[in-house]
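Following up on my earlier message about uridine-5'-diphosphate. Here are the inputs again, as you asked, copied directly from the submission form:
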Amino acid sequence: METMAKDGAAQEATVTPNKDVSEDNPKGYTVIYVLGGPGSGKSTQCAKIAPYFGFCHLSVGDLLEAEVETGSEYGKMIEDCKKEGRLVPSDLVVKLLQQAMQRSQNKKFVIDGFPRNKENRAAAESIMKIEPDFVLFLDCSEEEMKRRLLNRNQGRVDDNINTIQKRLKVYFECTLPVINYYSAKGKVRKIDAERSPEEVFEAIKDIFFELKEKHGRPSDARSLSG
Ligand SMILES: Nc1ncnc2c1ncn2[C@@H]1O[C@H](COP(=O)(O)OP(=O)(O)O)[C@@H](O)[C@H]1O
Ligand SMILES: O=c1ccn([C@@H]2O[C@H](COP(=O)(O)OP(=O)(O)O)[C@@H](O)[C@H]2O)c(=O)[nH]1
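Thanks, got it. Here's what our run produced:
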């Protein structure tokens, strides 16, 4: 099991500057949601994005796993949801995310695998007051996602064909509408995720460089020029 919050040891040349604090965004957070079906490569790409751009990688799947390991009262319910490919109730997921964000020294978050349904999204907006800067959508075919999950070999209880089918159903029925919601707001950056991890990351880098320009400091020549 990887650690749940992976703070990027940012490289000087690529780190994205912090946002200024404002009324809409009192904590000055930068938030990127990374969405896509199970096995589309969310964790693989977030593990590359975080150190390269100086973001904290928060995986809701990992936060839930860590909650189980603490022996918490929610442990059995979380494990049952995972085995059956169902989603954990939003209030718990949001609580875990909020705690992880508060504990982080970082203000820039790449949130992996959340929000997965309308209820998650509404809770993020109303409880956490989070609006993502953009949503990175890793677009991958069903056949390829199944193939990857069946070869993942991490001993996960949910990487069997039965549970994979259920997770895919949740993805198509509940998560795709969330992606469409953000798409209508012009916030989705779609990436062809069916290429090699390196090629996918190259495409993602271009999108993050755009964000870096947007948040560039006034002394940054590129932001001054437009
Ligand atoms: N671009 C890719 N090409 C081939 N295999 C990949 C690619 N990205 C991820 N994988 C592999 O597919 C599996 C699922 O990737 P992962 O990042 O865990 O997906 P997710 O977090 O979206 O469920 C892993 O075994 C990973 O090594
Ligand atoms: O916002 C979330 C994210 C994850 N999960 C649960 O955690 C499991 C594993 O999620 P993860 O992101 O690790 O894996 P993926 O299905 O994307 O491969 C899911 O099937 C859900 O049961 C959830 O309920 N809400």
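One observation from looking it over: The pocket of uridine-5'-diphosphate (ligand 2) is lined by residues 38-39, 42, 60-61, 64, 81-82, 85-88, 93, 113-114, 116, 120, 158, 167 (CB under 6 Å). Hope that helps, and feel free to reply on this thread.
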